[in-house]
């Protein structure tokens, strides 16, 4: 049975669930370990409870729903990223990783019983409607979210293209909620957007789907031709608020800028199953300077790329600390019964760092000017803020700001990246606070 490992942090509200960081190689199966007598006793207890509920509950329950709820309860007790996907969700996830699906265009997770927006996807219905990172969805079409599973909430937000869904949103500490009506649409994720910044190439990588590497390679070639090799000063790779995606794409993106060396390793419970991925010869940019932008919404696959380029001193990281999602989920198909999304490994940067619940610190910390109405609501809690998260090997750290201004002239992180590549002073972009000093490599 083919198993698909992925890396992401939540669920995408398209027609689907799934937004983990993911990889597309086949994992070897682990040796089965015989269950203990105590385990079989507990399973017998489960059977007794199931039978009692089936026979005596006040209303006749759907037996399949009971089993699915029990499976979900078991998996969600492990960590925030393990879950069960029913057949429809599994099909949707497979479509989604190809870069096109139906829905709203938001990345979500659960927090304190409510649906929390991790990030809206650029140029989608949710983005255009003003949905923001850290928004808490309390009601969907008038139905209270409290008490739902993430799967149930996502299912309610799905629907036919051109149909409307109304979300009631709590933003920050505001006592009043706001209502937003969004028209569902086909979400076509453009994983790479490129533009010329005079003598610098700008590459915005929004996700890691099956098209990401091919799109990035084409964009590098086009920018190089447009700017001219003699004028080109370098590239900015913007991975802010990139929630992750396919692991093989993260490896290929890293390899695109490295000539040699390890990119990432994954280590599971069995030491013999440690996997290492290394770069092949060849650099798309012929060694031109790189700046990678990260922030509190940069997770999983984007952290793999950032960590690899930082450890090899191939790029300078600017922005704020990343999310800290350092685990790998494997999608295990269950025949016609959907699939199991199970955390099977942690990943490590080339220097052996685990970023689980810690994140990656940029080389140069640059914080945005936060509008008054968003202050205190611009930060993600990070992986360490998720209930039941896997513990990190280093000191765990809270999240950081995920705010990115829509006006490029107000984007201090981008302006700092452009100035750095041009050899200009960065004093104007750095805060006087000690926490905003240049971070160590």
UniProtKB/TrEMBL annotation:
Residues 1-18 form the signal peptide. It is an enzyme of class 3 (hydrolase). Its EC number is 3.4.21.102. It holds the Pfam family PDZ_2. Residues 373-408 are annotated as: Disordered. One of its GO terms (biological process) is proteolysis. GO terms for molecular function: serine-type endopeptidase activity. Belongs to the peptidase S41A family. CDD domains: cpPDZ_CPP-like, Peptidase_S41_CPP. The keyword Calcium does not apply. One of its GO terms (cellular component) is outer membrane-bounded periplasmic space. It comes from Saliniramus fredricksonii. The keyword Ribonucleoprotein does not apply. Residues 90-158 form the PDZ domain. This is Carboxyl-terminal processing protease. Keywords: Hydrolase, Protease, Serine protease, Signal.
């Amino acid at each position: 049975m083919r198993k698909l490992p992925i890396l992401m942090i939540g669920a995408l509200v398209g027609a689907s669930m799934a937004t983990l960081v993911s990889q597309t190689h086949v994992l070897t199966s682990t040796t089965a370990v015989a269950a203990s007598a105590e385990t079989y006793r507990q399973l017998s207890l489960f059977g007794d409870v199931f039978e009692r509920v089936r026979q005596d509950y006040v209303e006749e329950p759907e037996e399949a729903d009971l089993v699915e709820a029990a499976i979900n309860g078991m998996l969600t007790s492990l960590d925030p990223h393990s879950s069960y996907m029913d057949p429809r969700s599994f099909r949707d996830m497979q479509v989604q990783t190809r870069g096109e699906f139906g829905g709203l265009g938001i990345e979500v997770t659960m927090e304190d019983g409510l649906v929390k927006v991790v990030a809206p996807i650029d140029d989608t219905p949710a983005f255009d409607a003003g949905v923001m990172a850290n928004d808490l969805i309390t009601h969907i079409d008038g139905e209270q979210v409290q008490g739902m599973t993430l799967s149930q909430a996502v299912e309610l937000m799905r629907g036919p293209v051109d149909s409307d869904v109304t979300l009631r949103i709590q933003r920050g500490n505001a006592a009043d909620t706001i209502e937003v009506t969004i028209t569902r649409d086909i979400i076509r994720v453009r994983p790479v957007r490129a533009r010329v910044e005079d003598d610098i190439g700008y590459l915005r990588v929004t996700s890691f789907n099956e098209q990401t590497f091919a799109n990035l390679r084409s964009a590098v070639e086009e920018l190089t031709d447009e700017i001219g090799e003699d004028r080109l000063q370098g590239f900015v790779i913007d991975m802010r608020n990139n929630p992750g995606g396919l692991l093989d794409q993260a490896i290929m993106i890293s390899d695109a800028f490295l000539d040699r060396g390890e990119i990432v390793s994954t280590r599971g419970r069995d030491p013999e199953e440690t996997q290492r991925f290394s770069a092949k010869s060849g650099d798309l940019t012929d060694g031109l300077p790189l700046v990678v932008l990260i922030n509190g919404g940069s997770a999983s696959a984007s952290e793999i790329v950032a960590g690899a380029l930082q450890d090899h001193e191939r790029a300078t990281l600017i922005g704020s600390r990343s999310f800290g999602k350092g685990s790998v989920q494997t999608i295990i198909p269950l025949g016609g019964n959907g699939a199991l999304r199970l955390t099977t490994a942690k990943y490590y940067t080339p220097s052996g760092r685990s970023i689980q619940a810690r994140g990656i610190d940029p080389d140069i910390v640059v914080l945005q000017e936060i509008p008054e109405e968003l202050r205190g609501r611009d930060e993600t809690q990070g992986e360490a803020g998720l209930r039941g998260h896997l513990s990190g090997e280093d000191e765990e750290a809270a999240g950081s700001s995920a705010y990115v201004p829509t006006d490029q002239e107000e984007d201090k992180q981008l302006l700092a990246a452009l100035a750095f590549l041009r050899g200009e002073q960065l004093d104007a972009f750095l805060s006087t606070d000690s926490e905003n000093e240049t971070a160590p490599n």
